[in-house]
Design a protein that fits this description.
The protein has 275 residues and is of the alpha/beta class. The protein has one domain: Class I glutamine amidotransferase (GATase) domain (Rossmann fold, 3-Layer(aba) Sandwich), CATH 3.40.50.880. The protein contains 8 helices and 13 strands. α2 links the parallel β3 and β4.
């Protein structure tokens, strides 16, 4: 039994529990979807399976991708592709190798959802990469949702896709967003019409569950959250600048300063491309 099959089996089992089914909660039924039933769990059934495209690239942060991908993998019926320029292995900023399942050329129709993870130097390089930016513009042209986690929003912004939208990013680089035409809005998940951006790294798990609920309904999202036993208890409560001790915050801000400076320089260059 594959992990994906196991996930579906667990989810079907969770549906048999005495869970009070909501109507749609805060997630309205998308146009073209119907409400179906799976073992007592009502979920949103699409007219045709969604295509989710997740950009991967050298130097990205693996957890930015893996958190959302885990949730997307349990969105029943959806096709999830990891996409890059070639099918050669992509190495993350901590040495994790990932294999693309498709290339830019393979994505001939705009996906239902396009996703960009963040990173460090690799992300900054992407902000001025014409092939990547053109691919994102083309993919976003017909996508229902244009999304990111962490500094991936800077890449969307560099492509001109956040102009006039509220958006967030990793705390260390989010001040770059206004240069790219976005309205900086600090938050774990920020949704503005078709744009959904999330904060740094671990926010990707929240983001993945949120999108699972938008695509399949709130109770489906709740069931996936239970399946993943997502119940974080951070050992230090130092995960945001507001919570971190002053000396820790100042030290990390100093460490990130060169990256923030490089991201701002790339943002200025990227903006010149579409202004």
């Amino acid at each position: 039994m594959t992990r994906r099959t196991l996930g579906k089996t667990l989810l079907a089992g969770a549906a048999a529990l005495p869970v009070a089914a909501s109507e749609t909660g805060k997630f309205p039924l998308p146009a073209g979807y119907s409400v179906a039933d799976m073992g007592g769990l009502k979920y949103f059934a699409p007219a045709k399976p969604e295509h989710i495209v997740m950009l991967i690239y050298p130097g990205m942060t693996a957890l930015d991708l893996i958190g959302p991908q885990q949730a997307f993998g349990y969105v029943m019926g959806a096709k999830v592709d990891l996409v890059w320029k070639t099918t050669d292995p992509v190495v993350s900023d901590t040495g994790v190798k990932m294999i693309p399942s498709a290339t830019f050329k393979d994505v001939t129709q705009p996906p239902d959802l396009i996703f960009v993870p963040g990173g460090g130097k690799g992300t900054v390089a992407l902000m001025t990469d014409p092939a990547v930016l053109d691919f994102l513009v083309q993919s976003a042209s017909g996508a229902r949702y244009v999304t990111s986690v962490c500094s991936g929003s800077l890449v969307l912004g560099a492509a001109g896709l956040l102009r006039g939208y509220r958006a967030t990013s990793h705390w260390a680089v989010r001040d770059v967003l206004p240069t790219l035409g976005a309205e900086l809005t600090a938050g774990r998940i920020v949704e503005d019409r078709t744009r959904i951006t999330a904060g740094g790294v671990t926010a990707g798990i929240d983001f993945g569950l949120y999108l699972a609920a938008k695509l399949r309904g709130e109770d489906y999202g709740r069931s996936v959250e239970l399946m993943l036993e997502y119940d974080p208890h951070p050992p230090f409560h130092s995960g945001t600048p507001a919570e971190a001790r002053a000396d820790i915050r100042d030290g990390m801000t100093k460490m990130y300063a060169p990256l923030a400076k490089a991201a701002m320089a790339s943002a200025v260059m990227a903006k010149a491309r579409w202004t």
